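#onboarding

Welcome to the new folks! Below is a worked example of what a typical request in this channel looks like: someone posts a single protein sequence, and someone else replies with the predicted structure as tokens. Don't worry about understanding the tokens yet, we'll cover that in week two.

Example request:
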Amino acid sequence: VWLNDKPLKQDLQQLLKRPVRLANDANCFALSEATDGAAAGAQVVFGVIVGTGTGGGVVVNQQLIDGVNSIAGEWGHNPLPWPSADELPGPACYCGKHGCIETFLSGPGMAVDYLNASGQSLSCSGQSLSAVEIVALAEHGNKLASACLQRYEMRMAKALASVINVLDPDVIVLGGGMSNIERLYSSVPRLWGDYVFSDHVETKLVAPQHGDSSGVRGAAWLWD
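Example response:
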């Protein structure tokens, strides 16, 4: 945060003596996957980063949309839509509010949800269970972990349905560590239909083609 309100771009250009273009990781990810990745050829693409945080980027006709406030795609700091009674007011978020999508769908968010539901705070290593460990437990039939993963899927379906209702993208591409949960690509589209304001949903949910390299590739595409 010490970079807040600092002229980073101008300082870099002065030091490097050349033009510089900047964008956040989610925007670069979305641009990469929309240009020559999993969503290549799609008119409207929403790229999602779900890892330690939750971010997003919007690309239309292979052009990155920043927005007048430079926050286009920042769905993670909207409240979780259609919350159940036990999801209110929601976990505290670093932004100062409660119940942000990020607090539910980030990796740490899943870990907190499992902890709250199970009361089991320690793994064999003495650390709180990570999202990776919870998913592994679910795959081996652990009921608490399976229930946690099902809640995660429903929350993602609701959160992405709200994006579809506003943006109506052709393709949504998942990125970040949580995108490695393979069942999301079948379970979430099966669930989001109840929350999308349409009789049918054509939007596709896909895994990234370029994986962790998409952020760097998207930064290069800023010069296209």
